[in-house]
User: What shape does this take?
Amino acid sequence: MNETILPFGDKREAPFYGKDILSVSQFRRPDLDYIFAVAREMQGMVTRVGTFDLLKGKILANVFYEPSTRTSSSFTAAMERLGGSVIPINEVRYSSVSKGESLPDTVRTLERYADVIVLRHPDVGASALAAEYASKPIINAGDGIGEHPTQALLDLFTISEELGVIDGLTVTMVGDLKYGRTVHSLARLLTLFDVRINLVSPKILQMPPEIVKELQTAHTPHGEYSDLDKVIPSTDVLYITRVQKERFNNVEEYEAVKDAYVVTSATLQSAKQRMIVMHPLPRINEISGEVDSDPRAAYFRQMEYGMYVRMALLAMVLGKA
Ligand code: NCD
Assistant: This one.
């Protein structure tokens, strides 16, 4: 593509060139404005030409130690739309990991072949550990119950594109706030904005105290609830999460809370006309199918915004935006 289309400058001035993306804590508001501006450019380019050669010759190692549909395939699509290519490692049981290779050795191997590594791993802090050993950028695609920073960026981009603003909104997070890494990252990122956050969950799945503390420190107004209906009328963004079955030690405990919240058309009857329903997906039962055709259901559009944000991030860490 014509390299003047995107806001390139000297690579050394590019704020994310060569950087890891490990946690949302590394971002400030101007960074978000910048990422979203590049994501919009990406959206425009995809609409106009589909695929272009910004990252031609660059290789992404896409390493998934946990299941994934969206994150893995949207990073692949993002890289391929930018003209780059992908080493997919999503069946680690067929890689040398199953022979007992350590994470540091796996990343030190892959960075010999690739220019950037996207990593999903069941352990909190795995991406940070990988980054200690790798000299190429590591992008955290979910580290256990820790963080999922690229998801939070795409979530915020979705809010901004769908509602036009972020400041002044009331964001209600529902479901598994304890184990859900997407809400951990999103809540942290929202502390940069003037928002109210409602945390709705069963008692045993409440937001971890350290994150609630971060909301307090940042003076982000928030409240913890178990009754969703109470907060629906004032909600601008209803962010629903799946109960993270794979994190439970005991099945009965999971069974007891798995259907604690099911959003139906009736739930949304008392909601604003101009609000959105989001979900990082996959959904199990927490949003009934009848909601899909409600114009407020943004969860399918949310996935597409994700590809543009991931295109922006790949271009940025590789010094091309
Ligand atoms: C989420 C994840 O993996 O944390 N999925 C995703 O990346 N879109 C949410 C989930 O699995 O529930």
